[in-house]
Specification:
Distance between the termini of chain A: 149 Å
Largest sheet of chain A: 4 strands, mixed
Number of strands of chain A: 4
Helix content of chain A: 55-70%
CATH architecture of chain B: Up-down Bundle
Largest interface: A-B, 45 and 50 residues
Oligomer: heterodimer
Helix content of chain B: over 70%
Number of strands of chain B: 2
Number of helices of chain B: 8
Shape of chain B: flat
CATH topology of chain B: Delta-Endotoxin, domain 1
Number of helices of chain A: 17
CATH class of chain B: Mainly Alpha
Strand order of the largest sheet of chain B: 1-2
Distance between the termini of chain B: 48 Å
Shape of chain A: extended
Order of helices and strands of chain A: HEEHEEHHHHHHHHHHHHHHH
Radius of gyration of chain B: 21 Å
Radius of gyration of chain A: 31 Å
């Protein structure tokens, strides 16, 4: 009997912590559920507020539909339809078949009097636009504010900006050409000279480890990077002596300092224009469904996505990008053909003025 | 006529030889100095940006030199005549326009020396420098542009110098009137930008000073 009591007592003593643990888990689960429920309520309220704000912002507005573009705007002299007719082919040529999704992302504009100082109601949806913009400026506005369909965060992070159409692709290419020639990176220079592997490195494609060694190959580049861009950052605290060593051309110190930088803050050797041109080349090569393929798998690696969009292997795409950039070489700063004639003409004109001067005239 | 021209050229050379010599030396030296450091092999990829920056900094001296040469040569061409109240010129058996034409042409001939110096200096600079891949040199374009700029500057200042004090006064009065109108327009909040319009007319398109505008680059992408 006493043995039975002993066993019961032991079981009850052992079970009590388990019960406590169980209750703690239950309590935490309830708290998590409660938080989730509160977050969902907040989401619902935010959606409702957005919806109400959208209704308020679009009250009394007209909807202009051109192709896949939907523009909700109050009545005004703003040439939205003409601008949309100009912008739509450019947008359609970039997003291809995915441009059909654009009606899901309408523009909301409120045209306002640019000369009025009367206080207006504050809207949290849409953009205020002065109604005296001309067609060119309005077209530019539509192109620079279009919402890229299904654009994911991974692509945005790599690209450094949203993918939108440009009215001047030649300028973008020329800017990349200048970067290829002048960027203080041996890797970029090798890319310029035709090393496709280096091009992939400087475009930040592929293995994400060891960017420092691949972007800034020589000790001089690393030292210039530290002393040029991060002197203030490293000049105080524990890194100050290492900075001194780096300034004395000690590459191990410079490399150590650059490795201390927070992830993602190492300056990319090429600007975002280079990656934008690469994506544009992929879309140009891939046809109308290229953009849809590009955004189809947000979790895939960037090179795989670009290859899929372009319908070609990635090395060929990078080679194509490089050729496009080289072809966009800026025009040299030579005088236009008429400038010589103009200079000679003005020289002759002022010479004639001197000949006809009033001095000696009787 | 050729003898007359030789005589005018000789006198003008005597009056302006210091300007010509100094201008020629400067024109020869600026391109060479602008690419200093371009041949350093140890700079690697860092070189291109620094080189372009250096070339661009030195590039601002070309239009200044062209303007200075035009101004001083024009002043030197007329200074002795102004000092002598043109009595010597009036005693010559020559129409005024022929006399002015001889002076004008003699000035151009003398200005050929700094123009040639720019061409030779630029070519030499480019030959001795090791340019990074992607950069190109434009010595001929720079020399031609410098020649046009010198000619225009010389013609403008020659015309002003050849005129009377009254002409100069009229020009100054017109400029002052423009400034005054612009000031009053700004005070009255009128949408009138005379300076912008003048800038456009003078510096852009086929304006008289268009050849001076923009970057003067011996080396560029």
């Amino acid at each position: 009997m006493s043995r039975l009591l002993g066993v019961l007592l032991t079981v009850s003593v052992l079970a009590s912590p388990l019960q406590c643990q169980d209750s703690l888990m239950a309590r935490l689960r309830r708290q998590a559920d409660s938080l989730l429920s509160a977050w969902r309520d907040a989401q619902r309220l935010a959606a409702l507020a957005d919806s109400l704000e959208q209704v308020r912002a679009t009250a009394g507005s007209d909807t202009i539909a051109v192709g896949g573009l939907r523009i909700i705007a109050n009545p005004s002299p703003l040439p939205l339809r003409d601008a949309a007719e100009r912008a739509w082919p450019v947008i359609d040529s970039l997003y291809g078949s995915a441009a059909e999704d654009l009606p899901r992302y309408p523009y909301i504009f409120r045209a306002v009097d640019p000369d009025s100082s009367v206080r207006r109601t504050v809207l949290h949806v849409g953009v205020e636009v002065p109604w005296d913009l001309d067609v060119r400026a309005t077209t530019s506005l539509l192109l620079t504010t279009v919402t890229p369909p299904s654009f994911d965060a991974a692509l945005a992070d790599w690209l450094g900006s949203a993918l939108r159409p440009t009215l001047r692709p030649q300028d973008e290419g020329a800017a990349v050409f200048i970067q290829l020639v002048t960027a203080p990176s041996e890797a970029v220079r090798r890319c310029f000279l035709g090393d496709i592997a280096r091009c992939k490195d400087v475009l930040q494609i592929g293995d994400s480890t060891g960017w420092l060694a691949r972007w800034y190959v020589t000790p001089a580049e690393r030292e210039a990077l530290v002393t040029g861009s991060f002197t203030d950052y490293f000049a105080r605290g524990a890194t100050a002596p290492t900075l001194q060593n780096c300034r004395q051309h000690r590459d191990d110190a410079c490399t150590a300092l650059l490795q201390l930088l927070p992830p993602g803050s190492l300056p990319r050797p090429l600007g975002q224009a280079a990656r934008l041109v690469l994506v544009r080349e992929a879309l140009r090569a891939g046809g109308r469904d290229a953009y849809r393929r590009l955004v189809a798998s947000p979790n895939a690696a960037i090179d795989a996505r670009l290859s899929s969009a372009a319908g070609t292997d990635f090395d060929s795409l990078v080679a194509r990008w490089r050729n496009a950039v080289l072809a966009a070489r800026p025009r040299p700063l030579t005088l236009p053909w008429w400038a010589g004639f103009a200079a000679i003409g003005w020289t002759a004109f002022f010479g004639f003025c001197a000949l006809r001067s009033s001095r000696w005239r009787l | 006529m050729i003898h007359m021209f030789r005589a005018v050229l000789y006198t003008q050379w005597k009056w302006s030889r210091l300007i010509v010599v100094l201008g020629t030396i400067a024109a020869f030296a600026i391109p060479l100095l602008s690419v200093q450091g371009a041949a350093r092999a140890d700079r690697g990829a860092l070189q291109a940006q620094d080189l372009l920056r250096s070339v661009q900094s030195w590039g601002s001296l070309y239009p200044l030199l062209a303007t200075a040469l035009g101004l001083f040569m024009a002043m030197a061409a007329w200074a002795p005549d102004h000092r002598g109240r043109h009595i010597h010129a009036l005693t010559l058996p020559l129409e005024r326009w022929r006399y002015v034409l001889l002076r004008f042409t003699a000035g151009f001939v003398l200005l050929a020396a700094p123009i040639a110096a720019i061409l030779i200096g630029s070519s030499l600079a480019v030959l001795t420098a090791t340019l990074p891949p992607g950069l190109q040199a434009y010595p001929i374009a720079l020399g031609v542009r410098f020649a046009f700029a010198v000619f225009v500057a010389y013609a403008v200042f020659f015309a002003v110098s050849a005129g009377t004090a009254r002409t100069a006064g009229i020009i100054l009065a017109v400029i002052a009137a423009l400034i005054l109108v612009q000031v009053f327009a700004s005070m009255a909040n009128l949408d009138l930008d005379l300076f912008g319009a003048a800038q456009t007319a003078l510096l852009l398109g086929p304006g008289p000073l268009a050849v001076f505008a923009g970057r003067w680059m011996l080396v560029d992408v």
